[in-house]
Amino acid sequence: MSRRKETIKKEWNDAAESWVDFVRKSKDYYRDELNNPATFKLIGDVKGQIVLDLACGEGYNTRTLARKGAKVTGIDFSEKLIELARREETKEKLGICYHVLDATDLKEFSNKHFDLITCFMSLQDIENYRKAIYEVARVLKNRGRFVFSIPHPCFETIIEDGKRVSATRRYFGAVKYPIQWEMERLVKPFRTTSFHRTLTDYFDALSKSRLLVSRLVEPRPTKEGLRIHPQLRKVLVTPQSIIVESIKCTENR
Ligand SMILES: C[S@@+](CC[C@H](N)C(=O)[O-])C[C@H]1O[C@@H](n2cnc3c(N)ncnc32)[C@H](O)[C@@H]1O
Predict the structure, then answer these.
(1) HSE of 172 in the Cβ direction (CA atoms, 13 Å)?
(2) CB atoms within 10 A of CB 185
(3) Angle formed at CA 143 by CA 140 and CA 145, multiple of 5 degrees
(4) In the chain, at which end, N or C, are there fewer CB atoms within 10 A of the end residue's CB?
(5) How far apart are CA 57 and CA 120, in angstroms?
(6) Ligand 1, from 27, 65, 77, 122: best to mutate by most atoms within 8 Å of Cβ?
(7) What is the tens place of the pLDDT at every residue in 162-174?
(8) Packing angle between helix 60-67 and helix 36-43, nearest 10 degrees?
(9) How far lies 111's CA from each of 23, 43, 76, 115, 116, in Å?
(10) Rounded to the nearest whole angstrom, what is the distance from the C-alpha of residue 6 to the centroid of ligand 1?
(11) Any idea which of 120-124, 145-149, 172-176 has the lowest mean pLDDT?
(12) Atom of ligand 1 nearest to the CA of 127
């Protein structure tokens, strides 16, 4: 593993306790009132499907997929987050199998194994996203779906040379940038690393792996979300995220 990847993994291991509190105590209202309702609507019925949740973190959405009747595997490269996910599985047995694995090397899984692969708000954190997408395509069945959400590359805020820059001002060209998580809602601030890429970068990687984009959603907050968290009103003007569904279209792999 490269030194840079080790550093990014360590950031997530160090963030684990604070991240778990943020996610499980409903403090992540962008997840609860914006991204999850739209993503699960797009995903639809998963009953009986064999699903991989890529970069699953502590497993919040992995558990939701399992509760909806899917047979789910979750992978993440953070040992700490997978340990916390496994601990939940011992409390509520959902039949989820967790692995500490890098998204760019899914060697545990044979070709054409999964019906659906999800990747919730993580592809922007995976340095070699092209390799991860290639692996996704390899382990997906033909006509299987890859559904992922990312911060909207056109509107995200990037940190460049220590300054916050809107992607509208420096859209073209990939860049690695730090995220300082320091909202009051966190028990402890932490830092992670993300990568800004263009929509073309993502779509090009998908099409090179024969994943054809079938649907795209720029989610709007729920009515309840707007009522409880009026801050979400800004998402009615400019999207915070984008959700992409793609379908594996090849008979040759
Ligand atoms: C923003 S979190 C999202 C986690 C989870 N999908 C969720 O919705 O709660 C991003 C996740 O990506 C994982 N990650 C980043 N790079 C990875 C890689 N190369 N392989 C596997 N996981 C990775 C991190 O450990 C972290 O859990």
Answers:
(1) 0
(2) 14
(3) 60
(4) N
(5) 9
(6) 122
(7) 888 898 888 998 8
(8) 40
(9) 32, 22, 19, 12, 13
(10) 13
(11) 172-176
(12) 19
CA torsion sign, 111 to 112 to 115 to 117?
positive
| pLDDT (tens digit per residue) in 134-147 | 999 999 999 999 99
Measured between alpha carbons, how far is residue 113 from residues 122, 176, 199 in Å? Answer: 21, 32, 28
Structure tokens at 166: 């809107």
Take residue 117 and report the two structure tokens written for it: 């692969």
Q: Which helix (DSSP H) or strand (DSSP E) does residue 181 occupy?
A: strand 175-181
Provide φ and ψ at 53, rounded to 5°. Answer: -100, 105
Whether residue 150 has pLDDT greater than 80: yes
Contacts of 83 (CB under 8 A, 6+ apart): none
pLDDT tens digit sequence for 205-242:
999 999 999 999 999 999 999 999 999 999 999 999 99
Distance 232 CA to ligand 1 centre (A): 24
Neighbours of 171 (CB within 10 A): 15
Ligand 1 centroid from CA 52, angstroms: 13
CB contact at 8 A, 47 and 69: yes
